[in-house]
Amino acid sequence: VSAGNGCGHTLLTPNSGTLSSKNYPGTYPNHTMCCWRLQAPPGTSLLLAFGDVDLEPSEHCALSSLLLTDPQTGTAYGPYCRNSVPSAPLLVTNSSTVTILFNSTSHHSGRGLLLSYATSQHPEGMRTGGSSDPLLIMCFSVYCPAGCKDIHGDIWGNPSQGYRDTSVLCKAAVHAGVIADELGGQVTLSREKGITLYESAFANGLRSKRGSLSEKRLIFHKVCCLLSPACDDVLEVVTFNASSWWHEVGMLGQDRDWVAERAALSTTGHSWAAEPDAKAAWLELDLGIRRNITGIITKGSSEQHNYYVTSYHVSSSRDGKNWRPYRGSSGQEEKVFEGNADSQGEVSNAFIPPIVARYIR
Hints:
Layout: E1 2-3, E2 7-12, E3 16-21, E4 33-39, E5 46-54, E6 64-70, E7 75-80, E8 90-92, E9 97-104, E10 112-119, E11 139-144, E12 157-158, E13 162-164, H1 169-176, E14 185-193, E15 197-198, E16 202-203, E17 206-207, E18 211-212, E19 216-221, E20 239-242, E21 246-249, E22 255-258, E23 283-298, E24 311-312, E25 315-317, E26 324-325, E27 337-338, E28 347-360
Parallel strand pairs: 16-28
Antiparallel strand pairs: 1-4, 2-3, 3-10, 4-9, 5-8, 5-10, 6-7, 6-9, 11-14, 12-13, 13-19, 14-19, 15-18, 16-17, 20-23, 21-22, 23-28, 24-27, 25-26, 25-28
Keywords: Disulfide bond, Membrane, Phosphoprotein, Transmembrane, Transmembrane helix
InterPro entries: CUB_dom, FA58C, Galactose-bd-like_sf, LCCL, LCCL_sf, Neuropilin_MCO_CoagFactor, Sperma_CUB_dom_sf
Subcellular location: Membrane
């Protein structure tokens, strides 16, 4: 839990999370405070990673300070500020409960703080943000905590070509669809030879940038292959069905049918479209047999019309009769996927966890 007027971006889950001061990485405000109470599952202990601690220096950190306490053992860490920084980037506690207190009085400078945490179940190479370390070996694994999607920093590239090695690593992992931002998770990647140009893409709620040549690039490896048993192949759709389709009659009396079969991503010309003014329209894909489905790519129709879908829900069925809405990693509310912003570009969204089904709507 968190409380106070100095809290910035915060996402706390039982196994990992990310937190920052208000306005981070801009100057944090005067006369604010925030208290975060971290509670890990019983039998585990907390590991905290100091991504950035930049509080205005003062004697005994009196103007601004970061203080961590372990109520189970009575241990205190800090106070920290710019002239009294943590001695190591990773703090390993022996407790499942830690209280983090940040406060400020009048000051002039400082980005504030960015921290992340994970439990002792995930001690391997935990990351808050930051770009990849150039000294890391060619292939490596890190644990990304929940809440990295909204931290400060840029990413360049896309899931198919990889990411410029100066990209924020865990943010890129969310964009690539290898972890869900709500949960975090273990990420396996390699550093390979860079390329001349990294193309921008919108995927999993994040927009990457278009970037120039870098010496290395980050390639994320999926432990469970996405989209089909052959990694990254597109699953074949046996049959398309839809709630309705548009029979268009042009100004010169020519007919054009926007039928469900035209919904395949590789189709040239016009796509599928529901009947005008149709409510709760849906498109259904029959894969023939039950498959493991972990991603979807959408694109608009650029044939004369600037048509595209901006957001959508997903449901699945194993028999075509009983349908289950996709609720995502949180498992609570039905997930709304961010779709396209124009009719030209492709937008990817990952299913974490994957869907096992024959039919998708």
